[in-house]
Amino acid sequence: MPLEVNGKTYETDEEGYLANLNDWTPEVAEALAAADGETLTDNHWEVINFLREYYEEYQIAPAVRVLTKAIGKKLGKDKGNSKYLYELFPYGPAKQACKYAGLPKPTGCV
Amino acid sequence: MSDTKTFVYMNRKAPYGTVYALESLEVVLIGAAFEQNVKLVFMDDGVYQLTKNQDTDGIGMKNFSKTYSALGDYDVNQIYVCEQSLKDRGLTLDDLQELTYEDEDDDWAEKSSIHLVSRDQIAEIVGSADVLLNF
Q1: Could you tell me which residues are beta bridge partners of residue B114?
Q2: CATH number of the domain within which A95 lies
Q3: pTM over the 0.90 mark
Q4: pLDDT at B21 over 90
Q5: CA–CA gap between residue B83 and residue A9 (Å, rounded)
Q6: End-to-end CA, chain B
């Protein structure tokens, strides 16, 4: 189902992930979240921005175990745990946050 | 885990031109979730997979070489490179990316994952495998 933001149409796959990585903008992220009935807070953005940086560096979206560990290292232990990340992204932190970050589905265990 | 097995991934092909190198890397990343004892061997043209400064612009393929440096995050840190294969191709360790991991048992010290090995040592590694995957 294509996603419409500010009059522009973006192609997505059957699960709502952006088809083209380069289409992503913060507004697109807001729209992807809104389509799931979610509103993005600063805490969401920390994780989304982290994922985009990780992808830029390694060309993959990290598995959830790797994400959790890396978030803990970067943002502190109180955020580097499953409970915190699942509260932010109830459909699975790796899967859902990658979607809003405009990345492909993670390689490995989500 | 009591039933940990040793998985050895043999990588013998150049990174592009066939899908073997990328497929191997993806299987390694997916398999890492199972917390097994994982060893990666790079020999023959497979040593090119780890070279620095790869540029795929001219061939229209994704440059997945950056992904190898994420292996440490996935606790994949036993990477064996055939010394003779490097030599035969005019390469040295300096031509390869630095791949590191943080050693949990040594105050998270950063250590190199890459070990140069002889063909005899590769034979031993293959012999140690419970599961051997050839790419």
Answers
A1: B79
A2: 1.10.10.370
A3: no
A4: yes
A5: 52
A6: 27
Distance from the Cα of residue B44 to its chain's centroid: 13
∠ CA A16-A17-A21, nearest 5°, is 145
Give the chain B residue nearest A68 (alpha carbons). B73
The predicted structure's pLDDT at residue B118: 98
Contacting residues of B for A107, CB less than 8 Å apart? 26, 29-30
Considering only the beta carbons, identify the residue of B30, B64, B66 that sits closest to A108. B30
Query: How do the domains of chain B map onto residue ranges?
Result: 6-134
Chain B residues near residue A60 by CB distance under 8 angstroms:
29, 67, 70
> In this predicted model, what pLDDT tens digit does every residue of B33-55 receive, in sequence order?
888 999 999 999 999 999 999 99
pLDDT of residue B44: 98
Instruction: Provide the 8-state DSSP code for A14.
Output: T
* Superfamily name and number for B6-134: DsrEFH-like (3.40.1260.10)
Task: Return the number of other C-beta atoms located less than 10 Å from residue B130's C-beta.
Answer: 12
Of A57, A70, A108, the CB nearest to B32: A108
DSSP string, A88-100: H-TT-HHHHHHHH
